[in-house]
Write a structure and sequence with these properties.
Elements lengths: L1 E4 L14 H9 L3 E5 L10 H6 L3 E3 L2 H7 L2 E3 L6 H4 L7 E4 L7 H10 L2 E4 L14 H18 L21 E5 L3 H12 L3 E6 L2 H11 L3 E5 L2 H9 L3 E4 L14 H5 L6 E4 L20 E4 L2 E4 L9 H22 L1 H7 L1 H4 L2 E4 L2 E2 L2 H7 L6 H6 L4
Parallel strand pairs: 1-2, 1-4, 2-3, 4-5, 5-6, 7-8, 7-10, 8-9, 10-11, 11-13
Antiparallel strand pairs: 6-14, 12-13, 14-15
Helix pairs in contact: 6-7, 11-12
């Protein structure tokens, strides 16, 4: 198969779809890889490194898209990229379609087979291609929050862990999944006063067993959420509903009642955000202020540490990329129900129920679409 890796063009995004080591694996299986010139510079991989791994280098994105049967990316395609997609191509990347009607419309119109990392599943009911970036984002959320609490950033001037004789900052993590666990780990490690909310008792039990008295575990009700958020110095929104828009749990009224200089970090912003006052920001302009509360809502947080993120992501995605390349999309999707869960758009249909519901499309099952794919 001919596989194309374009340079990411989302603002301040420096990750890349395939590492040189992944390229080598695919080349040794007989596949042809074209990497856009400069695509790997964010992870320290020059064009020559990719050439040494067996790839060819394309001068620009049109050359890569024209060459490829499968496009492997990191972030959702921008409008200039969706315009280059063809109906005979596979797109394998993060999509986050539920809050993005324009991208969804363009992908449907392209007729391409679009597989989203974030909805691929595993035997344990997890999201194995989302998990690596969730770990990175959870850890970065606390780093970013701690930095945003500093006075020059508009924060209240608190050190997250305090010092002897001065109380630490109060950190509230909403959601005890992969993002939440990693945020808790960082916040506890820095010595903050940490609380986590979740509605699953087994999740709270696991967190309590892991962190002991260093962490307060709270069953999430509206009253508990409001009380903790209003009293927090740093709130990390770590909520996920597979494929769907994130629920708006932190209301504008709660934000209005928070202390001046408090900080909100909305890791759910890729799925529309879990705070009513959230709007997507970039690494170049990461924060804004509403009602004297600093908001950090960067939509591609792991892109700030591209080397760590790209290698962690490729460790998870490579087996699926190789299956698609070795078998072709139809057979790979037929053979693996978990990969099939990643199919969001194909042949002009929306095949992810949560996306169809959020955006008003007719839902067509992935099984039905795959059955009618050309072999």
């Amino acid at each position: 198969m001919r596989i194309g890796v374009p340079t990411e063009i989302k603002t301040a995004e420096r990750r890349v779809g395939l590492t040189p080591t992944s390229v080598r694996e695919l080349v040794e299986d007989g596949h042809e890889i074209m990497v856009q010139s400069g695509a790997g510079l964010g992870i320290g991989a020059t064009d020559q490194v990719y050439i040494d791994a067996g790839a060819t280098v394309g001068a620009d994105a049109p050359a890569v898209f024209d060459f490829a049967e499968m496009i492997v990316k990191v972030k959702e395609p921008q409008s200039s990229e969706t315009a280059m997609l063809r109906s005979d191509q596979v797109l394998f990347t993060y999509l986050h379609l539920a809050p993005d009607p324009d991208q969804t419309k363009a992908l449907v119109a392209s007729g391409a087979t679009c597989i989203a990392y974030e909805t691929v599943t595993d035997n344990a009911g997890g999201l194995p291609l989302l998990a690596p970036m969730s770990k990175v984002a959870g850890r970065m959320a606390v780093q970013a929050g701690a930095h945003s609490l500093e006075s020059p950033q508009g924060g209240s001037g608190l050190l997250l862990g305090g010092v002897p004789g001065v109380a630490p900052a109060k950190v509230v993590v909403i959601g005890g999944g992969v993002v939440g666990v990693n945020a808790v780990e960082m916040a506890v490690g820095l010595g903050a006063d940490v609380s986590v909310l979740d509605r699953q008792l087994d999740v709270l039990d696991g967190l309590s067993a892991r962190f002991g008295p260093s962490l307060k575990t709270v069953f999430s009700t509206r009253a508990a959420l409001e009380e903790l958020v209003v009293d927090a110095d740093l709130v990390v929104g770590a909520v996920l509903v597979k494929g769907a828009r994130a629920p708006k749990l932190v209301t504008a009224e709660m934000v209005k009642n928070m202390r001046t200089g408090s900080v909100l970090v909305d890791v759910a912003i890729d799925q529309g955000g879990c705070m009513e006052t959230s709007r997507a920001t970039t690494h170049t302009e990461p924060t804004y202020v509403v009602d004297d509360v600093v908001h950090y809502c960067v939509a591609n947080m792991p892109g700030g540490v591209p080397k760590t993120s790209t290698y962690a992501l490729n460790n998870a995605t490579l087996p699926f990329t190789m299956a698609l390349a070795n078998k072709g999309a139809k057979v790979a999707l037929e053979d693996d129900a978990h990969l099939r869960s990643g199919l969001n758009v194909a042949a002009g249909h929306v095949t992810e129920a949560a996306v169809a519901e959020a955006l008003g499309y007719e839902y067509v099952s992935a099984d039905a679409v795959v059955a009618h794919m050309a072999g």
